[in-house]
Amino acid sequence: MKNIEQHLQDLPEPYRSQALKNMWWEDKGYKCELLSHALRQAFNWSVSPEKYRYWNQLHTVLVDCEKNNVPFIGFHTCKYCGVITQQPDKTCYKAP
Ligand SMILES: [Zn+2]
């Protein structure tokens, strides 16, 4: 089983760098089965520079990937609505 840091290394950028920067390093040895669980344990989302909503959205996408056995690729923050998805921005309901 991977520890939290090893799980966070599986995130695509920019989420990987942001998550590793926020991580509570004393939790380094804690092991868990899923990346979504590791993200929940890694740091306090609310006091991170990206704030709770950002990580909660990423967490939702990770849970969907884990449920459907889809690789953790193609994530991005929509430039129109700020939601994190695996969809291109042009499918956004707020896209012009
Ligand atoms: Zn959008």
Describe this structure in words.
The chain has 96 residues and is mainly alpha-helical. The protein has one domain. Helices cover 41% and strands 8% of the residues. It has a two-stranded antiparallel ribbon. Strands 3-4 form a two-stranded antiparallel sheet. Strand 3 (76-77) and strand 4 (84-85) form a beta hairpin. Helix 3 (35-42) packs antiparallel against helix 4. The longest helix has 18 residues, at 51-68. It is globular, with a radius of gyration of 13 Å. Zinc ion (ZN) binds at residues 78, 80-81, 83, 92, 94.
Q: What is the percentage of strand-forming residues? A: 5-15%
Number of distinct beta strands: 4
- Report Rg: 13 Å
Structural class: mainly alpha
H and E order: EHHEHHEE
Note the gap between the termini.
45 Å
Number of domains: 1
**Uncertain parts:** none
The general outline is globular
| Largest sheet: number of strands, sense, barrel closure | 2 strands, antiparallel
Task: Give a quick rundown of the structure.
The chain is mainly alpha-helical and 96 residues long. The chain has helices at residues 4-8, 15-22, 35-42, 51-68; strands at residues 2-3, 31-32, 76-77, 84-85. The structure holds zinc ion.
